[in-house]
Amino acid sequence: MDDALVRAGRALRLALLIALAALFLIPFYLLVRNGLASEAEITAPDWTLFPRDPHWSNVRELFADPDVPMAHALLNSSLIAVATTAGTLLLASLAGYGLARIPYRHANAVFYAIVGTLMVPAAVTFVPSFVLVSSLGWVSSLRGLIVPTLFSAFACFVFRQYFLGFPRELEDAAQVDGLGYWRTFWRVVVPNSRPVFAAVGTIVFIGAWNAFLWPLVIGQGRDSWTVQVALSTFTTAQTVNLHELFLAAAVSILPLLVVFLFLQRYIVAGVERSGIDD
Amino acid sequence: MSAPGGERRRQRNRTFWFWTFVGPFVAGLALFTYVPLAWSVYLSFFDAHNTVSPTDFVGFGNYTAMLGDPAFRSSLLTFTVFTAFIVPATYALSLGLALAVNRLRFAQAFFRSVFFLPAACSYVVAAMVWKMSVFNGVRFGLANTVLGWFGAEPVAWLAATDPPWYWLVIITVRLWLQAGFYMLLFLAGLQRIPVRLYEAAALDGARPGWQTFRHITFPALRTTSVAVVLLLVVGAFQAFDEFYNLLSGARGYPPYARPPLVHLYYTALGQGQDLGLGSAGAVILALIILVVTVVQARWSGLGRREEY
Amino acid sequence: MPINRRTLMAGAAGLALTGGLATACGTNTGRGGGGSGRPRLSQWYHQYGEAGTRQAVGRYAAAYKDADVRVEWRPGNYEQQSSAALLTDSGPDVLEVSGPTLDQIHSGQIVDLTDVIADVKGDFGQAVLAPKTYDGRVWGVPQLVDTQVLYYRKSLLQAAGVRPPRTLDELVDAAGRLTTAKVKGLFLGNDGGAGVLGGTPLHAAGLSLVTDEGAVGFDDPAAARTLGTLHRLYADKSLLLGAPTDWADPSAFVQGLTAMQWSGLWALPQIKRAHGEDFGVLPFPPDGPAGRPAVPVGAWSAAVSARSGHRDAARAFVKWLWVERTDLQEDFALSYGFHIPARTSLAARADRLRNGPAAEIVRFTTDHGFPAQPLLWTPPSQTTYQDALNRIIKGGADPATELKSAVRKAEAELRRMRKGS
């Protein structure tokens, strides 16, 4: 009796989860469905579950569009996202480790000064940032697109919390071996922290890939368009190119899905150890 | 060994290494965040229309103008209410997902992935799907099709102010985008709870289910909860992207569901370029977030463990 | 521990790669001289949706001999980008503006173009040139003219026994009678019309946003009456709301979701393809005793940045393209999208504007055109007014009270403008 109840409860929970999962997947389905439909089918009053004959030619059309260098934009986004992720991981992990482990009188003050910047909405300092970067002569350069975004207080915060909880015995052993902070960090701490690097890396990568306003304003010239900028070109003051918009949106998410599915095992372990919850 | 000279040398040595590790990051942050921030604060004391090097000092004029603007005050109020709703809602959904997924014996990775995938979507893409496909106002929109099965009239979701259906659109898109990320944080927290706690509770006669959750799981998740709530509150007050992408048209933004940042965008920082006024509004907003965060951190003990 | 070394090496290699690329891709702001001795100019356009426009403006730039002109095609929110860029030295030399705004003129961000346009000043319509003129000086050379009209399906009106509306009351009435379970009567945009209509209903009532003397133009009971009428459209449920595309896109009208739609001239070719002869065009219908048909007119114009290093070269280029080369101006307006050339002489002789609805629309703009964006109408005034209009149309708010706050804001802005001059 009790057993049956438990089993029924478990089945109910599973059914609920499956229903929720289906709900969560609907938007992805819509992206693909509309991306492969004809322009008229998207706004047509008679809804079809899937386009009667999927317009696979939309894919070719998207990559051959003379006004939108989609392939080049994908390349740009990959380059920027990879460079941003690598740079952020390097800078933030070093800083996080220093804050967590190296005794220094003003370490806490420095830490609060870093975390405090999380409270300031980035949209607000946008114009001064733009003027600053432009006065450095970095407009329309990869430098301008990447360097100003490398200093992520969020990433630094996560790393610091993680390193606070890092087992001290491992480091102590290294110190006994005569390794200084620098070599301890690279030889002991980094190899044992792959999960947190995977977790922070994924989140930074997603952020860099999806960034819009900064790449749009700094990257003047079609050669420096990123995927998000390319996406925005399908909506203009006069018309909206719906099927290319949806298809391009689907294409723009694809690389992220691959990255995530590949790293997700590490991420879960990483968040667990990051101590972000402490 | 413990001669004062050696101690001082060691201390100098540590200071050197501290700045070797932290210095590059802090230098970048100072240049690319603190300089623009200080510049914004400076601008907020000037009449700075279309200029970043203003000469017309107005003292606190921009601040009194901003605080005297009923639209800005009402956007702050709306967003306090919004925060009071979206924070518990996201919290409950992501915790619920984490609990359910955590107990699965199979396909755990599948469900985890499905719920996290939306986090990879940009706000622009999500808003587009919501606006054009799920919640468009004509009878063949997805939501209206479902309503049609029950014989209900189609609803113009984003344009409907009475009742304010647009909140449903905004809240669902935010939940969809964010629940997975916070679910992940909770999952991590759950996996850290020692099994022996549950064993002990079972010995004490606690029934699995609500009682166990109430007395073991929930208290053990306290620290995770604190971090999640903090991030949610900061996020809710800084909301901009999904609102802008869902509700703005080619000619502006409706006078409802206007977060503080959207208000600043339309009155000062977009085409208007009243940079002094906009910066003043931003400073006010940042101060509010700061106060809320500090109070919350004090109250929940986030600040603990700052010692070595 | 080989792994850490590898990690380190990979990290270092990654950094080197970034650094190398960054140096390799030096800045390209379009500034500075080329080797040839011709000045290099950067010219900005907002992204036009019509295929071929981008290539066309590239051709125009390439045809210019006295400077090396690089075209920047800007997607996304153009106003925000251009106003940010005007604050820096890496912005454009020549740029398209929908204004210019009075703040841009006051703060010296753009250059006086009065003598550039002097020879042909009489060839522009008053509604087009007035918003580019301040204190008798001209700050932008109009490139093309856009306008909006009411499109209606003749067959649907006939079937419902409704004649094309000639007053606002008739429009409200027609929209109600045209509304069925499947088709709505009228589409004024997904927000119910506050955004796209702007000052149009005021002009239909014989009023305006800002008077020629620089005072608030709608501090009048007639304004409240007219705007209040618009609420009936919403209350009757005759308005299409929440369509997948907005008013600027003809999809809703083409797909038969609505019997009438307020949209741009640019939508005409698409509508014609879909409905053939089965559609007509009207100006916004008049309302009240002082009423008159209203047709909003807006023009993108070419301006020169005051921060340009080659101001004279930039002015010379603007003069060459937007004053002298009438062939290119006509090509720009009519070969890709569907706009009216800014010059009245060109509009009068353009083949595609000679007959049918297009000819009617050109006539509307000459007879009833008014500047959609007066120079003294600032973004804060616009936001406050539009909020009021939105609350009147959709919330059924009391028009008189709502308008009072809009009048107050507009007056404050006008005062600020007078002080700034």
From TrEMBL, chain A:
Q: Which Pfam families match?
A: BPD_transp_1
The GO cellular component terms are: plasma membrane
Gene3D superfamilies linked to this entry? MetI-like
Q: Where does the record say this protein resides?
A: Cell membrane
Its GO biological process annotations read: transmembrane transport
Entry similarity comment: Belongs to the binding-protein-dependent transport system permease family.
What protein name applies here?
Sugar ABC transporter permease
From TrEMBL, chain B:
Spell out the coiled coil positions from the record: none
Where does the ABC transmembrane type-1 domain start and stop, copy by copy? 78-296
> How does the UniProt record describe the way this protein sits in the membrane?
Multi-pass membrane protein
Q: InterPro entries given for it?
A: ABC_transporter_permease (IPR051393), MetI-like (IPR000515), MetI-like_sf (IPR035906)
Q: Per its UniProt record, what Pfam families does this chain match?
A: BPD_transp_1
Query: What cellular-component terms does GO give this entry?
Result: plasma membrane
The UniProt similarity line reads: Belongs to the binding-protein-dependent transport system permease family.
Q: What is this protein called?
A: Sugar ABC transporter permease
Q: Which organism is it from?
A: Streptomyces cinnamoneus
TrEMBL record, chain C:
Q: Which CDD domains match?
A: PBP2_TMBP_like
Kindly state which keywords UniProt assigns to this record, in alphabetical order: Signal, Transport
Q: What InterPro entries does its record include?
A: Bact_solute-bd_prot1 (IPR050490), SBP (IPR006059), TAT_signal (IPR006311)
Which Pfam families does the record associate with it?
A: SBP_bac_1 (PF01547)
Which Gene3D superfamilies does the entry mention? Periplasmic binding protein-like II
Q: Name one GO cellular component term.
A: cell envelope
Specify the signal sequence span: 1-24
Name the PROSITE patterns on file.
PROKAR_LIPOPROTEIN, TAT
Claim: Transferase is one of the keywords in the record:
no
Compartments where found = Cell envelope
The answer on whether this UniProt entry bears the keyword Signal reads yes
What family is this?
Answer: Belongs to the bacterial solute-binding protein 1 family.
The protein's name in its UniProt record: Sugar ABC transporter substrate-binding protein
